[in-house]
């Protein structure tokens, strides 16, 4: 096992994740990121502001349930 390659791959993945997080946060409209099961992974600041909620309140919530709570 090439530890250097694994370390580099991990660093690259973390950098890509951080880059995507920055993009999500700068989108001026409400944005929800879902996982493969359509559960909320994260929401941006515009979503929190527009729907008077927090990321902690909606994290892990199924998309269908999210609608019932907020709109």
Largest sheet: 2 strands, antiparallel
Q: Uncertain spans, ≥5 residues at pLDDT below 50?
A: none
End-to-end span in angstroms? Answer: 51 Å
Number of β-strand runs: 2
Sheet with the most strands: spatial strand order: 1-2
Whole-number radius of gyration? 15 Å
Q: Indicate the mean pLDDT.
A: 90
Number of distinct helices: 4
Q: Helix/strand/pairing class, anyone?
A: mainly alpha
> How much strand content do the residues show?
5-15%
Q: Quaternary status of these chains?
A: single chain
Q: What is the overall silhouette?
A: elongated
Helical proportion, percent range: 55-70%
User: How do the helices and strands follow one another from N- to C-terminus?
Assistant: HEEHHH
Give a description of the structure:
By secondary structure, this protein is mainly alpha-helical. It has helices at 3-26, 45-51, 55-58, 63-70; strands at 32-34, 40-43. The longest helix is centred in the first third of the chain and has 24 residues, at 3-26. The chain is elongated and about 50 Å long. The N and C termini lie far apart (51 Å). The model has no long low-confidence stretch (mean pLDDT 90).
């Amino acid at each position: 096992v090439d530890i250097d390659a694994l370390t580099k791959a991990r660093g690259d993945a973390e950098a890509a994740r951080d880059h995507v997080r920055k993009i999500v946060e700068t989108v001026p409209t409400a944005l929800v990121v879902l996982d493969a099961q359509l559960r909320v992974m994260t929401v941006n600041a515009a979503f929190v502001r527009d729907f008077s909620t927090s990321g902690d309140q909606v994290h892990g919530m199924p998309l269908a349930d999210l609608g019932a709570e907020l709109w």
